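Inverse folding, one chain.
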């Protein structure tokens, strides 16, 4: 009996009018990937001339700061020697006050060093973020010109034909587009 009821329900569901799905309502009627490409975005960012330019500018700034802080360190060492030499001429309270002031100066210099290093690191990271944005724009432009339907990161692919790798032309275009790259830093 249960089987008969089940068959009747199945038969009724087949005979009842079903909603029709029109083929032309598909929002992606021509959705096909015909051409693909692969790009090693990490290599593009690492090997870009703009990255090298920014690194060199960063190294120059670091060298300037290193020189500046070496001078400050020498001044602090001289101040410490003078403080030790004058210790016998000072009362305990005067010496404690002088030591406290010296330690405050050391703290100020250390904070200044840390602030400037962080500013340089942030400037480099910001430049890399900007470069990545530009690289993605270059990839989009290239894919449009070459009629590539989809671009994948090369590092996520296991096997692909090397002719599909567009890393070199993307890097070349990125270098051309960013040949005047500069490091912008708020360290001064």
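Residues assigned per position:
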């Amino acid at each position: 009996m249960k089987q008969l009821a089940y068959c009747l329900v199945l038969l009724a569901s087949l005979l009842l009018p079903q909603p029709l799905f029109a083929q032309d309502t598909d929002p992606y009627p021509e959705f096909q990937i015909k051409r693909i490409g692969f790009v090693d975005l990490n290599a593009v960012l690492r090997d870009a001339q703009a990255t090298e330019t920014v690194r060199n500018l960063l190294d120059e700034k670091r060298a300037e700061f290193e020189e500046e802080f070496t001078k400050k360190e020498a001044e602090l060492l001289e101040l410490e020697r003078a403080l030790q030499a004058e210790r016998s001429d000072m009362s305990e309270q005067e010496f404690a006050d002088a030591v406290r002031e010296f330690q405050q100066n050391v703290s100020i210099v250390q904070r200044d060093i840390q602030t400037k290093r962080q500013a340089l690191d942030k400037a480099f990271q910001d430049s890399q973020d900007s470069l990545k944005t530009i690289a993605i724009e270059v990839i989009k432009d290239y894919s449009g010109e070459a009629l590539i339907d989809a671009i994948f990161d090369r590092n996520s692919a296991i096997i692909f034909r090397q002719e599909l790798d567009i890393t070199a032309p993307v890097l070349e275009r990125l270098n051309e587009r960013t040949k005047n790259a500069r490091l912008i830093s708020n360290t001064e």
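Residues 33-177 form one domain. The chain is about 65% helix and 5% strand.
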